[in-house]
Design a protein that fits this description.
Length: 587
């Protein structure tokens, strides 16, 4: 066990309601594991436990692994405690247990991703069909404010003459009565349950008197509203651990706002971890310009084994014509000069761009179609919706119509079988129902099989011989090199590419990781949500894009290089002052 810093000690002593704002490399998982261990040793209650929550199964597993390392034996934290994801906590302990109160049969609700029931409803209007509302009831949900939303926008619809509520709201009632809860509304449903039934909130608070949320900067507003009700209902000890500067999952409704707000509330105590055990002091000094939390504050203190590294971070400026290989060559040579071995767990080249090459497991995908679906899902969530559509379309075409190789125009071929506009809607329906990319790959495949089955059944498309779902949607079952690959979230198989000697990854793919040297490559790309030199120098610190840059820059221990176009030697780079950054020009 490490000797703890004063700040870490303060966290170990803390009781009541606490927010721990922890800088990169401060050992969040380590200190969470120590805290949990401390409580486990003291625990005397048989039917009340701790809830130790994070956002992905992988993160939960990391906490468990860390605890095992500390106690030196492998085991499981079992009843009465719960270690798992925020989603599974809300599903299992709130929605599935008490949701029966809101349906007519008093049955356990069904949480679902897609609408497989298609209940009949006579009152749709032409406009409802035109806007696509009649076909997408799973996109409607009540927010915690009680208002009806579709795709994050409030539904503002003039009710039919004589009707008090719009048809979508009436249709939604039918589903509600049958106990069908769509995944998108689980948190707001849980909120409503607790809000309208304070005794349930009290029961859960009493079942879990200690709640600890790791990576709490990624809590959505709805999730935080649910936890707020539990906190006020009597949870005795609460710990929100996170770093608002590292919130990079807005696409799944994560927002650092809730976390930051707690830091400002009087009844919450804010604790800080400002010692960085990962990076050199020079890196800590240089990256503070990209952190909102450190605006007008001192840099974090480097306390790790490379705290005193002499090498300044490098701003590598090149012309628009400079080839990528030249930039990488410079970086690799610099690594060699610093005696950093260029291997994938020590050296990483990261970009903001979202799509990367395939997994490291050979023969992972058992058909070209399943790979296209998985790739399409990755594009759908992280990349280009157009690419996602094209991949999904090709996979469905190959499963139901014919060989892709022999066709000239996919649209013409499809039109022979089914009107293209109907086909297009079908594809969109499949994509909007892709399971989350945080699902472990084997679970993702199983969930996707069910969704695809339902969606193909509801269309008139017939699967070709040998191309049925069971044959096509399949992955490898065993791998000798990576035995636990089935437990890994599916996104992992697209985020990294370790085939070269170094790691190549999107910033999302290296979140939480440590390397000796990192090159953040600011590629020149068109588009509003890309990193550019001007954004890095002048962009808002509270934007997700800046946080993505910050996460990338805070991964290395010894060498940080940021490469971007810039040939004017007199140009100003306000966030890369020469006192902290070495400016290097290459042609
Ligand atoms: N008191 C301590 N003394 C020495 N090392 C420590 C101490 N506390 C934590 N550490 C180590 O510091 C390292 C911190 O890195 P880690 O990746 O866990 O940080 P983190 O907070 O998760 O960072 P990030 O949020 O940037 O991913 C870990 O290896 C951890 O074991």
């Amino acid at each position: 066990m490490y000797e703890l810093t004063d700040e870490q000690e303060a966290f170990m002593r803390a009781e009541g309601k606490n927010v721990l704002c922890a800088c990169p490399g401060s050992g969040k998982t380590y200190i969470v594991a120590r805290k949990v261990l401390k409580y486990l040793h003291q625990w005397k209650k048989n039917h009340q436990g701790m809830a130790v929550l994070s956002f992905t199964n992988i993160a939960s597993k990391e906490i468990m692994d860390q605890i095992e390392q500390l106690i030196g034996v492998s085991g499981k934290i079992d009843y009465p405690h719960f270690v798992g994801t925020v989603d599974s906590f809300i599903n299992n302990f709130i929605v599935l247990q008490y949701g029966y109160l809101y349906n007519e049969n008093r049955a356990r609700p069904q949480v679902t991703l897609s609408n497989i029931w298609n209940y009949q409803f006579r009152f749709w209007r032409t406009e409802c069909h035109r806007k696509g509302c009649s076909d997408s009831i799973e996109k409607f949900y009540y927010g915690i404010d009680g208002k009806l939303y579709k795709n994050h926008s409030e539904v503002i619809c003039e009710p039919n003459s004589g009707r008090k509520v719009p048809p979508c709201a009436q249709y939604k009632k039918i589903y509600e009565k049958k106990g069908i809860v769509f995944q998108s509304e689980v948190s707001s449903f849980a909120y409503r349950l607790l809000n309208e039934n304070p005794c349930i909130a009290q029961a859960i608070a009493s079942r879990f008197p200690v709640i600890l949320i790791d990576e709490a900067q990624d809590t959505s507003e709805e999730q935080m509203a649910v936890f707020d009700l539990l906190f006020t209902a009597g949870v005795e000890k609460t710990f929100l651990v996170g770093d608002p500067d590292q919130s990079i999952y807005e696409w799944r409704n994560a927002t650092p706002k809730c976390f930051v707000q707690k830091m400002q509330e009087d009844d919450w105590k804010t604790l800080m971890l400002t010692a960085n055990f990962r990076s050199s002091q020079r890196i800590c000094n240089a990256v503070r310009y990209f952190s909102q939390s450190l605006e007008d504050k001192a840099a974090n203190t480097a306390k790790g084994p490379f705290a005193a590294e002499e090498q300044k971070p490098i701003l590598l400026l090149h012309s628009m014509q400079t080839g990528q290989e030249k930039i990488y060559e410079y970086f690799k040579n610099k690594c060699k000069e610093m005696e950093i071995e260029v291997v994938s767990d020590k050296v990483a080249i990261v970009t903001r761009s979202k799509i990367h090459s395939d997994s490291d497991i050979s023969g992972l995908w058992k058909s070209s179609e399943v790979e296209m679906f998985a790739r399409s899902a990755y594009e759908w969530y992280f990349g280009s919706r157009k690419k996602a559509f094209s991949l999904c379309e090709q996979a469905i075409y190959s499963m139901t119509i014919g060989d892709l190789k022999s066709i000239h125009s996919i649209e013409d071929e499809i039109n022979r079988v089914i009107p293209y506009y109907k086909w297009k809607l079908g594809i969109i329906n499949i994509m909007t129902n892709y399971p989350s990319l945080d699902t472990p790959i084997s679970g993702w495949i199983n969930q996707f099989k069910c969704t695809l089955n339902q969606l193909l059944e509801s269309s008139n498309l017939v699967q070709r011989e040998g191309k049925d779902i069971a044959n096509v949607v399949k992955i490898k079952t065993r791998d000798t090199k990576m035995k636990d690959f089935k437990e890994k979230p599916i996104r992992v198989f697209f985020e990294k590419k370790n085939k070269e000697s170094y790691t190549r990854s999107s910033v999302h793919g290296v979140k939480g990781e440590t390397y000796e040297a990192v090159l953040l490559h600011v590629q020149h790309q068109k588009g509003s949500n890309t990193l550019t030199p001007s954004f890095l120098n002048n962009g808002a610190l509270d934007s997700e894009l800046m946080r993505i840059a910050y996460v990338g820059m805070t991964r290395p221990r010894r060498l940080l290089v940021v490469a971007m176009p810039g040939t004017d030697k007199k140009a100003e780079y306000p966030r890369f002052p020469k006192s902290e950054w070495e400016h290097v020009f290459i042609k």
